[in-house]
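Section: Multi-chain targets

For targets with more than one molecule, the full set of components is provided together so that the structure can be written out for the assembly as a whole rather than chain by chain. Components appear in the order listed by the source. The example entry contains two components.
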Amino acid sequence: MRDIHTSAITDAVKKLCMEANWNLEPDMLRAFDRALGRERSAAGKQVLQTLKDNAELARTKRIPYCQDTGMVVCFVELGQDVHVTGGGLYDAINAGVSEGYKEGYLRASIVRSPFDRVNTGDNTPAVIHVDVGPGAEMKIMVMAKGGGCENRSKYKMHTPADAAGAKDFIVECVKTAGPDACPPLVLGVGIGGTFEKSAILSKKALFREIGSPNPDPALDAMEKELLEQANRLGIGPQGYGGDTTAFAIHILTYPCHITSLPVAVTIECHAHRHKEATL
Amino acid sequence: MSVTTANDGIKDLSTPLSDQDVASLKAGDRVRITGVIYTARDAAHGRLAPLIEKGEKLPIDVRGQIIYYTGPSPARPGDVIGAVGPTTASRMDRFTPALLRLGLKGTIGKGYRGDAVKAALREHQAIYFGAIGGAGAVLSRFVKKAEVVAYEDLGTEAIRRLEVENFPAIVLYDCHGGDLYQEGQKVYAREGA
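Its structure, encoded as tokens over all components, is:
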């Protein structure tokens, strides 16, 4: 057993929330550069250059890259030999969100109920997913998930015979997201499992490094094929027209029932803010 | 006339806008906006709507003005405002025609809008501008002054009066039916999508 005190968890989450909003990860900055190299549209290039400048300004001035500093989605990979001391794990994570958003001048964007819409004031609670596995470490992965793109995320159950339809659905999601979701987009796709499993996979898929290959060669080929199709739509940066509609499509799969082919697509904007730490 | 074309081809606008100013703008025009603009998003529109329905006075005079759909992040000490990029405009579609009827001349946001808004832009001579979504840090640099003028309890969703200088935007929908999204995307769409 290894003890990890909740104060260490809170500190880590606090830093991850602030850093995610100020410092776009290098994988995204490289994606901007690659896109600038091939984008034909002048308006599209101008958008991409502005977004690079925006990332630099956010980093140096410590102001958020986007005013929508997101809902915090937190994945925890918890080693089963870890013993959390000093309080509850979920409370520790939410305390980190609260401190990070207040001290970092990040926007409070969460309302306590979908209907009375009263702001909680500190961007809590986070959406927290915990996976327990072997080991004595705790990996904390934080994403500041923007609302505009989240609103364009979609879910559909396909029939097992309709794998082609499942692929078309993913490209269709890019089309319907359009400029509302702030392209160039990143798509997290969860295929298989059950209704909720595929949705969670679609979020987790977003943590893979942008531009890295899927470890499964068949899925890697599918990702590349779908990305090529998405970028043929012509939507372009901000929807002004262009070649760069999506930076990446990441797929995670899970075994599923003989009757099912669930597909969940999380739409993520170019403000793809993700950070992780291991305790 | 508060629209002039600069040497770099970008149109400089100063608010308030007249019908003549609006008519001179075309989808795809890049603009720099200087003057006062007002922020309002979902919750503020929700409060304006019943006032308009009852014919009551609004907390801001919208005639000739531009509403920017944004909810800024908090300002750091010494800064005018935090990050201040546009939010998705279509959520405000249900409120927009009534505001245009009252004389609002422009909105700034991102994303597609519905047919009713497009028709109202033509009928009432108004523009839908786009600012670059997600460029909240860069856009904050063009805001020289910010103050809450209504609904302070709404926090980020309060109505703010912003004084902006050379705020960069693009004409997404003009008052003649022009639509940058349609025109721009058509050029780059390829077979096999």
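Chain B is about 25% helix and 25% strand.
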